[in-house]
Amino acid sequence: MATIESIQNAYIDYVLTEGHEPKSVYLFAKNNDMSEEEFYRFFGSFEAIEQNIWAELANKTITAIKIQEVWAQYSAREKALSFFYSFFELLKGSRSFAVYSLKKHQRALSSPQVLNTMKNIFEAFADEILRDGLDSGELTDRKFFTKKYKDGLWLQFGFVLNFWVNDNSAGFEKTDEAIEKGVNVTFDLFQRSPIDNLIDYGKFLVKNGSFKEKMGL
Question: Vertex 44, ends 39 and 45: CA angle to 5°?
Fold first, then answer.
């Protein structure tokens, strides 16, 4: 009897052996001793299989990092770093498929459609850790911009993923470095900066009617 796992494994084996997806669901099902009905019971298309594989990678990563004893003590920045490091460590075991999938669905101006389901999972996770960071005061709540923080994290993830695909260093150590630098820079932007202090000072002066006086006008 076909299962989600058996269909995914058969699909991965096919695309990595042949270099392209099966010509039809009928032929794929027939070659794997199942009916089309069994296939469609689990997936609506071959792309749906790939979307599910990426989603499972994200879910497995989140589950693994949240059961760590130190998770509750982590800052939002540390939680993000934990996800990135753990995800790409897990992805090593599926590198051939990941590279195939991403190169097949390359997009110049947006993330590949095959990552859509995973993106929803990632953004829900990002919302959670960013909210914790805002509540603790680790991150700065900026009008109009705070809701875009998760988009910034997703863009950083996309950058690292593309970097990893092209990383030829031993053990993908350069990807680890890209994660450290990229996530830290992103979170630096989420935290309070001298610009925030300047804006707050300007608001204070305007509110207290002393802006012109302070400016010598």
Answer: 90
